[in-house]
Amino acid sequence: MRYFSVFLVIVCYLYSSDLNSTDYNLNSIKAKLTNNGEKIWVYKKMVKTLGNKSKCLSGETWLFKKNNQLIKNICKNKKIIRTTHLWKIYKKGIIDIIIKIDNTDYKLLFFNKPENPDQEFMKIRTITSKPNEYTKDIIF
């Protein structure tokens, strides 16, 4: 019984320290997402035509700003379509980091690939409500 009590105290301490460090974790994730100002994440490389800056062949980029503004530039029908959104991040449970873009929640994950350990990637995953629904990953 004594060992169980010690174990329980340790688990409670670790859990409470995790809760206390939530602000730090979210701040560091926000800093990573925005590079402490603004950062462009490339989903598909933007290929522009010569001469006209608003014409393109393909591409999609997301610009995250520290003021919680997201600007998406998407090449559609050979034109760059620019849309502005609001975002915020929060923690759900002990592990999941959620990014809310406008009114839609996504799971947010940063990772490195073994073949390129110095480059950081970001994954935004749709959240499903049913186990048999597919998720969609957007990897930057």
Give an overview of the whole structure.
This protein has 140 residues and is α+β, with helices and mostly antiparallel strands. The chain is 23% helix and 52% strand. It has two helices and eight strands. The chain has an eight-stranded antiparallel β-sheet, with helices on one face. The radius of gyration is 19 Å and the shape is globular.
Feature tags:
140 residues, alpha+beta, eight-stranded antiparallel sheet, 8 strands, globular, disordered N terminus
Large-scale geometry? globular
Number of DSSP helical runs: 2
How do the SSEs run, as a string of H and E? HHEEEEEEEE
How much is the average pLDDT? 85
What does the oligomeric state look like here? Answer: single chain
Contiguous uncertain segments of 5+ residues: 3-21
Number of E-state strands = 8
**Distance between the ends:** 50 Å
Largest sheet: 8 strands, antiparallel
Radius of gyration: 19 Å
Structural class: alpha+beta
Beta-strand share of residues: over 45%
Short overview:
This protein is an alpha+beta fold and 140 residues long. The protein has helices at 2-20, 22-34, and strands at 38-48, 56-65, 69-76, 79-92, 96-101, 104-113, 116-126, 137-139.
Write the topology of this structure.
Elements: H1 2-20, H2 22-34, E1 38-48, E2 56-65, E3 69-76, E4 79-92, E5 96-101, E6 104-113, E7 116-126, E8 137-139
Antiparallel strand pairs: 1-2, 2-3, 3-4, 4-5, 5-6, 6-7, 7-8
